Amino acid sequence: MTGADTKKEVIFWGLLAGIFGLLPVVSHNDYHLIMANHIIVWGLFAVAFNMLFGITGMLSFGQALFYGIGGYGVGLMVKYLGKAWFLPGMAAGVLAAAVLAYLLGFLIIRVSGVFFTILTLAFGQLAWQVTFRWYHVTGGDDGIQGIIPPGILGNKVFYYYVCLACVLASVWYLRSLSNSPLGLILRCVRQNPARVRFLGRHVRRNQRRVYVISSVFAALAGGLMSGVDNSVHTNMFYWTTSGEVILMSVLGGIHQFFGPFIGAALIKIIEDVVGSRTEFWPLIIGLLMMTMVLAFPRGVVGEFQMLKARWQWRALERARRG
Amino acid sequence: MDLSSLLVQFVSGLSTATLLFLVASGLTLIFGVGGVFNFAHGSFYMLGAYLAYTFVATVKLNFWVAALAAALGAGILGMLAEALILRRIYGRAEEGGFQILLTYSLILIIDDLVKLTWGTEYKSLSRPPGLGGALVMGDLVLPSYNLAIIGVGLLVVVLAWLVLTRTRPGRIARATALDRETLGLLGINVPLTMTVIFGIATALGGLTGALAAPLRSVTPGAGIEVIIDALIVVVLGGMGNFWGAWLAALLLGEVNAVAVAVAPEWASLFSYLVMVVTLIFKPEGLFAPRQVRKV
């Protein structure tokens, strides 16, 4: 990383912590708080997803599976053992996601490309079916309501700051992972798996590794979300949830580390402005996805940087001529 | 369970299998020949069902004519989608992922357009005249429409096989699968071929939707359920493997028939179970030839 990049990164982290850290101080509106909370938690989910897609080139259509496990880990613990089990529930959900992702990795990372996408989708829908139909345990389509974090965590503002701390720490960890030798290998896996083998590295093993990492943070996002909404619902497992997190990443830019986070913020804002006024929300996100893929495949952040590079190049040309 | 009711379940499973195979064959065709993964294939199935409903209920066409017209309609819409949208990203870096995303956006768009056009309530289509009853042989009662579906399915399979192996268009299709560049050098219009193949694949999907409409109610959102079933068939059969898909559909259809009889509530989970077991023991597909393991 060059000095300019480091400076930019510091500024970005500063902005991120500043905007979201100061929001409860500036606005005492409950609605804004929940909105910001949704943005940061979805932002984490999207960044974790993009470790798979943007960095390693594995398009999973089933990360909702782990997001749901995180949510239901908390939900089931609170429902059956009481609200003191909120945090242990979150730990259990994350642990369960790690174990499941590790085991599933052996099943579905033997096949590549489209098959990986198909299988992640199938396993995600399998989990949704089970949650949906196992009514007397999971509450089926009713979901689980009244998940209130215990003690001081019950305070909305305090819970928001806990979420923010978790999200910042997790994104920081994922960022350093992406800059580490492992991150480099993962990028090589996306670009040229054959050469990774020539270098004596394992393609599949690294794919399984990032699959587990991504899933763990998806589950953490799900667990955090259960405390924001005070409920969990089978929709957390549904394929449209996986689709939404994909759209966030594509909108923000899959080849930019922070793109998905910005995409998450944009989607949540668009959803807030448009979604409440129309029942045809899927049509809108469908058209948005199509526009991005056809016209702006680099995403908002990527296209912006492209534009900036072009301006700089033009200025350089002008200077040379003049 | 006595023998005759077992046989009834078997026939019911066979008709499910036929429908599954018809959907999956369209998916396999366009993937095997064109290298395009059409995630929205189930949406064309749904369009076929809705079009057939309109042709029968509003235009008052005969059911079979309506089913063919619905297939034609789904085919034309498919060709439009390929020529206007999908074609734009052929050859782009990381094409596979973007194809999935693009066809995913089609699922969402088609779903909502269907809701706008036909509303959200359930639509049902009655069985074609003459096939509403059942074939009775002794104490064996077989619903005649299910038998008709099996017959139509066999007809389509044999026709598709003949066209692919014995005719010039079939040869062109197989050549497209192998080497598009050389095909273009030989004077074949490759982009047009791709569009037509995409159209045939979506027409197969539409036809299946129309045929299934009298058995299952027609609802928006059916596209995703169908695509997942079809994908499981394709995974089990081995992608692009015509006969493998047929055997896999047969297996899943019968498993489903047994599951409905044994545990109706959990029936939809059994096909996933078959998939999981297959993935553990033979990840390249049940009926695919064993491949040389890569180092």
Features:
heterodimer, A: 322 residues, mainly alpha, ABC transporter involved in vitamin B12 uptake, BtuC, two-stranded antiparallel ribbon, 14 helices, globular, B: 295 residues, 2 strands, 71% helix
Give a description of the structure.
The complex is a heterodimer of chains A (322) and B (295). Chain A has 322 residues and is mostly helical. Chain A has helices at 3-26, 30-55, 64-81, 86-108, 114-133, 135-138, 156-179, 181-191, 193-198, 203-229, 239-252, 259-274, 281-295, 299-321, and strands at 144-145, 231-232. Chain A is 78% helix and 1% strand. The mean pLDDT of chain A is 90. Chain B has a two-stranded antiparallel ribbon with strand order 1-2. Chain B has a domain at 21-220. The longest helix of chain B is centred in the first third of the chain and has 32 residues, at 3-34. Chain B is globular and about 60 Å long. Classes of the chains: A mainly alpha (322), B mainly alpha (295). The A-B interface holds A 53, 57, 59, 61, 107-108, 110-111, 113-115, 117-119, 121-122, 125-126, 129-130, 133, 197, 239, 243, 246, 250, 280, 282-283, 285-290, 293-294, 297 and B 31, 37, 85, 88-89, 92, 94, 96-98, 100-102, 104-109, 111-113, 115-116, 224, 228, 231-232, 234-235, 239, 265-266, 268-269, 272, 275-276, 279-280, 283-284, 295.
